[in-house]
Amino acid sequence: KNEVEQSPQNLTAQEGEFITINCSYSVGISALHWLQQHPGGGIVSLFMLSSGKKKHGRLIATINIQEKHSSLHITASHPRDSAVYICAVESGANSKLTFGKGITLSVRP
Amino acid sequence: GAGVSQSPSNKVTEKGKDVELRCDPISGHTALYWYRQSLGQGLEFLIYFQGNSAPDKSGLPSDRFSAERTGGSVSTLTIQRTQQEDSAVYLCASSSGLYNSPLHFGNGTRLTVT
After folding, report:
1. For each successive 10 residues of chain B (114 residues), what is the average pLDDT?
2. With contacts defined as CB-CB under 8 Å, which chain B residues touch A94?
């Protein structure tokens, strides 16, 4: 079993919809990162969180440490949100990162 | 520059040749990761450097792969006797290494082994 599981693997939405992407992990962590990769593009960091909730524009990230679960929400989705969203957890004494496989989101106009 | 810089951006090599990929992390960042991303696949961890600690090499797929980080800054990933299955985008990321510090990724090196 992978240490970091993301669901769903692929997601298609209509412009304007509210989108939720999930990440579950099986190890104790010190932080969780949400990353975004546009087709053919580089990877950018969206959020890093270790508790609670963070908001940036239309994006909201939440984490429940007890349940070992995090969600990334996109409100009023737009085609430019189409990308791969990757969850990564930081754990261990050396803060090593373990990545999920990512979720491919397509937002249709 | 302000970001993580990787070179070359593209590399085409013949099977059996050795290649070197370079990563310049953000100045002062003590943590440096190498990952690779094969077509349609997720990120595969290769190696992690953190300050002066021994690197975590647990992700290197074979002994043809090696990496070093000189002076705690620039890192070089070397692949010897390249194989076609080595074709991938090789990504470097760095962070300050402090608790809850964000990651910064380079744009990657696209390696094609013919």
Report:
1. 89 97 94 88 86 88 94 93 96 82 90 97
2. 48, 50, 53, 56
Please tell me whether the peptide bond between B55 and the residue prior to it is cis, using omega within 30 degrees of 0: no
Residues 6+ apart with CB under 8 A from A64: A70
Nearest-CB residue to B100 (from A31, A43, A97): A31
Which residues 6+ apart lie within 8 Å of A98 measured at CB?
A3, A4, A25, A27, A88, A89, A91, B45
Backbone angles phi, psi at A68, to 5 degrees: 55, 55
A73-92 tens-digit pLDDT: 999 999 999 999 999 998 87
Taking CB atoms and an 8 Å limit, are B43 and A45 in contact across chains? no
CB B21 within 8 A of CB B77: yes
